[in-house]
Amino acid sequence: MRLVAVTACPTGIAHTYMAAEAIEEAARAAGHEIKVETQGAAGATPLSAEDIARADAVIFAADIDVRGRERFAGKPIIDTGVKQGIHDAAGLVAQAVAAARSSAAKSAPAGPAEQDAVAAAEPPAPATKLDRQAGFGTHLRQWLMTGVSYMIPFVAAGGILIALSYMLGGAEIASKVNGGTYQGHTYAGVTDISQIFAQTGLAGLMFKIGTTALMMLAPILAGFIAYAIADRPGLVPGIVSGLLAGAIGAGFLGALVGGLLAGGVVALLNKPKVPRAIAGIMPVVVIPVISTLIMGALMLLVIGPPVASLQTALTDWLAGLSGANAILLGALLGLMMASDMGGPLNKVAYTFGLASLASGDIKVMAAVMAAGMTPPIAMALATVLRPALFTRAERRAGEAAWLLGASFITEGAIPFAAADPVRVIPSAMAGSALTGALSMAFGATSRAPHGGIWVLPLIGNPFLWVAAIVAGIVASAACVVMAKHIGRRKGSVAELESPAATTVGPAATLQPTGPGPQ
Amino acid sequence: MSDLITAELVDLLLTTEDKDATTRRLAGLLAGSGRVTNLEGFIADVRAREAQMPTGIEGGIGIPHARSAHVTEPSLAFGRSADGVDYGAPDGPADIIFLIAAPEGSDADHLSILAALARRLVHASFKDALRAAVVPQDVVDLVNKEVLGQ
Fold first, then answer.
1. Tell me, which fold does domain A2-134 have in CATH?
2. Chain B residue with minimal CA distance to A481?
């Protein structure tokens, strides 16, 4: 395979060249041709137009803007920081090879990773089935990242509008719009949507718009995961799966699974060779109808019932725990709140909090709310502490996540969880469990069912409650940074398990003069 | 153009504990040989670069560096620390530290020497040889041989 790379760093006298050397070594060790343009202070020898045209994939290892980025338009691009080029050159080369193969496998790829990352115009060569199997982990990450990058604006728009509506109208605005009990008042809610502004004012209007945008999170995630796998035909079954995941209470994890399955179903339906007469109507009629029917039935009949019975069982179990050790209960609720961020477990925990609130136990609500606030803020903190561990899309999501977490909109952490569930979810759970346990231990109370820091006046023992949240944030952020470090190596090892990629894998260890202990 | 590094710019027994003190010690060597005209000004430039992103590299290397108006010619100071100095690399402290100094307006030829050094630094054999150096002149010879091909 032919690769090109650009390396660049702020000063341009050290990292630029270290990364170039490491990437050249790693690529050659893996048996690929590579040319590197070092955009450093010693002057760059630009890649020739021919080098770029012939390249199967492009690596940017740069901490400053790559000059002449447009030269690479249409190529699969792995875009990362300059240090990644030094520390994990072999991993980058493997990613680039996988990206080249996936763009070759699909003649019009959906732009995995970030929108600006990939959009191959000309497929270099048709990939074999074996190649497609190669680097499944890398593919999976790209599919998930595609879904996540399209979802992030919805999370940010919806979450920030909701937070603003709390600031403007107080946290009771949620009950005013949706109906419910807040601080002893029972609100009927807005039944006629055309009256929303008249009944609830600007705050209510913003809340409604925000929740609507946030509702799109599951369909957009599922739809664009399927789109990344199966291109445009994946959108319909993917979006419908995501909507149904919301309807059956399966949350973003349900949507994530639905999106992956929808993409797989469409890919399978595209496989058999069909007579020319039918081929014309395949993408317009046959594939959308059949794939959507299959996926809808899967979500409603196969995934729905277990989710519902799980919720019932957990609700009963929690109710039975009422008299148990308060600190353990707090930890358990924290685990549940962070486990699926709006999915079935989170809902059970939150509903338990509401029920406790209604029956006069206001400690549980404080623990539930605190535990639901930590994951987004912890992820935001992690993106600031270790930006190199996150994609550009995630770092952008991190900017909004501060406000979302502070407003008890746990969904703010979903972009991180969906992009990398195995590392992010346990980290979030650890911190939230700590927060939940501490909140109970401190005896903090909340008389509000939602609102986050905007209802601080309704929190009993507010200083220790905030301390519990901060403790959880620090714990989760530390966990996720560690998991991304350890996990990253494990992850790239896992990717290399598949047969075709093993030719790339051992390169890292065989390479005699590679970058020291990794 | 004189040598990139000389024996007097090598300290194989660093006793400094943090990166500020280490940078100051190595910058002092450069100032002592007249390659840095304003010690405080140069240290401030290095610190400004360090603040953008830590210069620790996995594998026990620190490469504080700056292009600075207070530098007269491209220069290296080398330090080795038995206890290690934290330069912010994810895998722990650095025992091999190169302070890289480049004049503000230096031309590409001069800087290409520093680029060659940076390229050598990712090679385990080069790092091992630096760790094995017995006297300062060993480091000078190694740099001349590996980087300048002399």
1. Rossmann fold (3.40.50)
2. B90
